[in-house]
């Protein structure tokens, strides 16, 4: 009888190994702990095909998502500047301040791209000035846009 068996890891908790990786472990460890606790499956031909199929699907989906994210970044970078008109008071200060919601509405109105409030990073803007805003499209992908605040009095 074999002392070691081949298993396929089901989740990433097992010894910092990745899901779907084939590992050789002792027979008792596999049948008494890993398989009953749902950490691994026995590596049969069908299980190996199953995990390979799902890994291929995941790779294709990741590639499609990266293409979509690249297109969104290109569309956002086509916006050279955002211009917002506000009433001003004394010392070139605007009434209220510019918030993420204002920028989200402007971007959606002119480019039909929806962002969430947490994706837009701005400092407190309460005066007439040219500022830079950062839009975090994905975790490592950031676009920077100029924000121009133009005064008007009525």
Automatic annotation (TrEMBL):
The keyword Plastid applies. GO terms for biological process: translation. Keywords: Plastid, Ribonucleoprotein, Ribosomal protein, RNA-binding, rRNA-binding. It comes from the Eukaryota. InterPro entries: Ribosomal_bL9/RNase_H1_N, Ribosomal_bL9_bac/chp, Ribosomal_bL9_C, Ribosomal_bL9_C_sf, Ribosomal_bL9_N, Ribosomal_bL9_N_sf. Pfam families: Ribosomal_L9_C, Ribosomal_L9_N. Belongs to the bacterial ribosomal protein bL9 family. This is Ribosomal protein L9. One of its GO terms (cellular component) is ribonucleoprotein complex. GO terms for molecular function: rRNA binding; structural constituent of ribosome. Residues 71-149 form the Large ribosomal subunit protein bL9 C-terminal domain. The keyword Ribonucleoprotein applies. SUPFAM superfamilies: L9 N-domain-like, Ribosomal protein L9 C-domain. Residues 18-51 form the Ribosomal protein L9 domain.
């Amino acid at each position: 009888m074999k002392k070691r068996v081949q298993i396929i890891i089901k989740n990433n908790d097992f010894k910092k190994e990745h899901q779907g990786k084939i590992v050789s472990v002792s027979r008792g460890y596999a049948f008494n702990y890993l398989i009953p606790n749902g950490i691994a499956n026995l590596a049969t031909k069908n299980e190996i095909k199953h995990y390979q199929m799902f890994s291929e699907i995941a790779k294709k989906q990741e590639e499609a998502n990266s293409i979509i994210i690249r297109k969104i970044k290109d569309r956002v970078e086509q916006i050279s500047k955002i211009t917002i008109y506000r009433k001003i008071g004394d010392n070139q200060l605007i009434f209220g301040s510019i918030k993420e919601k204002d920028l989200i509405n402007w971007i959606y109105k002119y480019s039909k791209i929806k962002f969430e409030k947490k994706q837009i990073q701005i400092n407190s803007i309460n005066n007439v000035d040219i500022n830079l805003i950062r839009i975090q499209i994905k975790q490592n992908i950031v676009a920077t846009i100029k924000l121009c605040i133009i005064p008007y009095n009525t």
